[in-house]
Amino acid sequence: MNAITETRADTRHLRGRGMAASWYGIARTATIDRAGAWAELDDGGTAKIVTGVTEIGEGILTVLAQVAAEETGVRPEDVTIGDNDTARSPEAAHAGATRQTYMIGNSVALAAREARKVLFEQIAEIWDIEADSLRAFNGELWAEGTNQRMTMADAVAQCKARGVVPVGSASFTAHGTGLDPVDGKGSPWQTYVFGTQVAEVEVDTWTGEVQVLGIWAAHDVGRAINPRGVEGQIEGGVVQGLGQALMEEYITVDGHTTTHGFAKYILPTSLDVPEIKCIIVEDEDPTSPLRAKGIGEPALVPTAPAIMNAIYDAIGVRMKSLPATPEKILKALQDKKAGKAA
Amino acid sequence: MAATNCLRQNPDADIDEIKERMGGNICRCTGYTKIFEAVEIARDVIAGRRDPAELEGDEPLGQSFIGHNVRRIDAPAKVTGRLRYAADVKMVDMLHMQVLRSPHAHARILSIDTSEAEAMDGVECVITAEDVPGTDGFGVFVHDQPIMARGKVRHVGEAVAAVAAEDLVTARRALAKIKVNYEELPGVYTPEDAIKDGAAVIHDYAPDNVVKHIPLRKGDPQSGFAQADLILEDEFTTQQVEHAYLEPEAGYAYVDHDDVVTVHSPSQNITHHRHMLADILGLPINKVRMVMSAVGGGFGGKEDMIYQGMLAIAAMQTMRPVTLNFTREESLIASAKRHPSKVKYKMGLTKEGRITAIAFDMLSDGGAYGMSSEGVMRKAAILSCGPYEVHNLCVDTKAVYTNTPSGAFRTFGGMQAQFATESMMDMAAEALNLDPFEIRRINMYRAGSLTHTQHKLDRASLDQVLDAAEKASNWEKGAPSVRGATRGDLAGPDVRQPCTLGARIVAEARDLKPGDHPTATPTEAAE
Q1: How far apart are the C-alpha atoms of A117 and A137, rounded to whole Å?
Q2: What are A220's strand-pairing partners?
Q3: DSSP string computed for B135-195
Q4: Are the Cβ atoms of A94 and B244 closer than 8 angstroms?
Q5: What is the CATH number of the domain that holds B9?
Q6: Active site positions of A, annotated
Q7: Burial of B85: CB neighbours in 10 Å, binned 0-12, 13-18, 19+
Q8: Which pLDDT band, with edges at 50, 70 and 90, does B527 fall under?
């Protein structure tokens, strides 16, 4: 404990902890979801992937490069991912609903697998062995139990010299059903994720300000394809959840905004960010080839309630209306005091 | 730039100083944490405390690329500013678009006179709803939104007309020359008002102003509540939230050599946008092409096709490329926000903490157009009562039209609903003297559970994440009964210090060494 912490062990700054759990469905809700992809093992031992993917900042291009590399045997840096273009790439639909890793990841895995199969069949004939003894990883291809080995660049060249371009394509489907219009019965998704977050806060009872000091975020993602990317998504979700919990509010008066710029619309900045401890839980999804699920939206869900539960733990007032601004906290504290006095 | 400046000012800046010096920058994707880590690595490399090879080197590769921290392939272009967003793209002969927006929340458009604007030098076209060649209307679920206001405006900031001109200034000046006569109509600004008898009707097709109502019914709530030892009732509200993506809406359109109308924009769903735009333009689907430009954040806010249609129509009329870049202020008023919601909650539990019944009623502000409201209500209903098996429930979620903007936002209603549920769970835990983890374990989904939509789960990992969070946070067990003052698990190694604004400056003023903390801020000293 340093000096600041000691001075804050007072009646003005009160600390508390709260937790919240959550769940979420993966891919489009209450409908069949679909995604297509094309793959080609290209000159120089590279891979070309074309699919309707949208890199929205979450790192999906890196995830797809890893998946394509894993399935074909090339290195991730040797994967080229084509632009998303309705006239040039197969449909993989939208960037939302926590669906890209699941839908497009599986589609790319299947397409890449098909391209690899074409390549393996040609190399197996050249080496006169069974195709299923072939393995490829990190730019090299070899036959198990033999000393046969070559680079992926040579493998593609030899395949093409035999008149065959190693290409593949795939469509991945997630089966959800609509909801019954009367009782809502239905199976909206084929896989679900769960999360739990713990928040530690300090409330300044003089100003009503809440500082979130720590968040422990445990999330099931099925299988973390890029753990650092998963952490990034959790950290981004937590901070967005924190903004919604404590400060963000788009206000309109008779339909006219009074928060017309970032001077009025308050967002979390670096000083609002708590220490975030991510715990990645991998409950693999048996219904899909990659066995991964997703994390984009679910990371945000438990943050605000965990913070509200922590505020209650600290100062004994339950914030039921978001955001829990300093003004609302002070009012709640005053109401509590008045209630006790009455 | 802020990071570079920070390390120039103080090459030994600690994490608190780095945070403070970067306090003027906004990041909406990363949650800042990875940025702080990067700045700390850079600081140590510059100071010679870490090997520069760390910046280049990857982690040792095992047997698989799955689960491996491969470096982000798109990061170098983003960090160095080499990535071109739609607003960065310039084409030969490109025209600049500006949009005239509604000053009224709800008004009938009596007339629009564009003649003076059209006559201006440098103005190539002025378009209104009259210029839409095909069947107007877009939306994620219901196509109730015209490319530009048709007959009436339904929210402040709605597009009414657009100008394409040789330069931005001319386009802006031309907007001022467009004369629109409005007849103001009574507005509806809260969902409660929207469903009152006699409320102003916002869309003729929905005289009750209801966009979508999703009901879930399971078991027998009445007998469930009868079995309860404890019944809690409360209300929870959430607010409108702006996505605040760093890249405001932007795009450009042109007609190519094969007569294909092509639109580049940072859309979250070009597949659906192409479908809708083909109908709106009255073209075969292969004569419309949507290309995804680099996206600077979306969070659901770029699922709505609120400007691509205007660009396409202007490009078709002028046969020249046309670009449109929203200002931040324009982005704020013209784009959708997270649905505000009000949840009326009733939960019954046994004294052991088992939920016997839930009644959950959500009313949401669906805004002026349908956008994603139907899906948001569906997801809010499906997820409503949280990851707990509830045998008896009655859930209703309803979004209604108002004269405000609402649409899709990360979690699509899931957050609004579960905020209410998770608050109720803690309130129940306190009333029953149960640890908050424990009450959740008592009720949680397990393999074989039936969800709120009666979907039988093959597996459920809630037990694993509860255990993981409890262990990692070193959680001290106990009922959530305002025990912050006495609990022993606070201020552990995984929490940051509270920050006091200006602490570093005070420290410097007192000539303390960097890294030292002042013993008290001026305010505290005055206590």
Answers
A1: 14
A2: A281
A3: ---B-SSS--B-SS-BSEE-STT-EEEEEEESSHHHHHHHHHH-EEEEEE-----SHHHHT
A4: no
A5: 1.10.150.120
A6: 297
A7: middle
A8: very low
Q: What Cα–Cα distance (Å) separates residue A91 from each residue in A104, A110, A114? A: 10, 15, 18
Identify the helix (H) or strand (E) that includes residue A211: strand A210-220
State the Cα–Cα distance between residues B222 and B209, nearest whole angstrom.
30
Is A248 within 8 Å of B412 when comparing Cβ atoms? no
Q: What is the ipTM of this complex?
A: 0.96
Residue B524 pLDDT level (bands cut at 50, 70, 90): very low
What average pLDDT score do residues B251-257 get? 98
Is B362 strand, coil or helix? strand
* CA dist., res. A100 & res. A96, Å (int): 7
The full 3-state SS of A70-118, as one line of letters, equals HHHCCCHHHEEECCCECCCCCCCCCCCCCCHHHHHHHHHHHHHHHHHHH
Neighbours of B62 (CB within 10 A): 9
User: Residue B256: inside a domain, yes or no?
Assistant: no
DSSP lists the bridge partners of residue B323 as B96, B252
Nearest CA in chain A to B338: A250
Residue B415 phi/psi, 5° resolution? Answer: -70, -45
Q: Locate tokens 């016997």: which residue?
A: B356
CATH architecture for residues A33-174: 2-Layer Sandwich (3.30)
Residue B18, in any domain of the structure? yes
Q: B232 touching A, CB under 8 A? A: no
What digits encode the pLDDT tens for the residues B102-129? 999 999 999 999 999 999 999 999 999 9
> Does the predicted TM-score (pTM) go above 0.80?
yes
Residue in A113, A153, A146, A150 with CA at minimum distance from that of residue A130: A146
Burial of B92 (0-12, 13-18, 19+ CB in 10 A): exposed
Chain centroid to CA B17: how far?
30
Residue range(s) defining the domain that contains residue B37: 2-80
CATH code of A3-26+189-341, in short, is: 3.30.365.10
Q: Is B209 left (phi over 0), alpha (psi -120 to 50) or beta?
A: left
Residues of B in contact with A264 (CB under 8 A): none
In a domain, B6, yes or no: yes
Residues 6 or more apart whose CB falls under 8 angstroms from that of B297 comprise A56, A57, B28, B29, B243, B244, B245, B246, B247
β-strands A192-204, B250-255 pairing: unpaired
> Whose structure tokens read 């965990």?
A306
Q: Let me know if residue B398 belongs to a domain.
A: no
User: What amino acid is encoded at B322 in this protein?
Assistant: V
Summarised one tens digit per residue, pLDDT across range B435-462 is 999 999 999 999 999 999 999 999 999 9
> Which residue of chain A comes nearest to B419, CA vs CA?
A305
